[in-house]
Amino acid sequence: MGEETVTGAPAGEHDRGGDGAGRDTGKLAKLLVMLLTERRQTVAVAESLTGGLLAASLVEIPGASVVFRGAIVAYATDLKSALLDVPVSLLERYGPVHADVAGAMADGVRRRLGATFGMATTGVAGPDPADGQPVGTVHIAASGPLGAARRGFSFAGDRRSIRHQAVFTSLKLLQGMLEGEAD
Fold first, then answer.
1. The CATH number of domain 5-182, selected from 3.30.428.10, 1.10.10.200, 3.40.50.700, 3.90.950.20
2. Which member of 22, 84, 106, 152 has the greatest number of CB atoms within 10 A?
């Protein structure tokens, strides 16, 4: 699996629910919990810009405790290294908002929490640019038994919308990995 840069969907496209979870995100999370349960596989997440929303989208689903190992919200840069084993040299070279950092976060959380799959989010939700990156810059990654995938995005919208788009897109990445294993 490779890396790509994609311009995100218009603000709110994936987050249509008034409860903040979004109907599309909820449906996708439910499907993933079902697939992981059927396969007796697990997932763990490492989050930065989403600040726990990705984990919350999964644990919202009844039965998630069978497949969800846990989450590490490493918002501060130094915690990405201390808790997720992201190499300090990588953080010094690129900063915390980079595809390689997202990939290392996904690998680290998978290893640290003993999960079949690891997922990670990092980026800039705004309202201001950070670490030399414009608002809407998002990197997501997933790591599993058959390899890893990283994706870069430039999402439009406000802080809330960017974070929710990152969650939805992360779930889609995991779905793609699971469907790839079924082939």
1. 3.90.950.20
2. 106
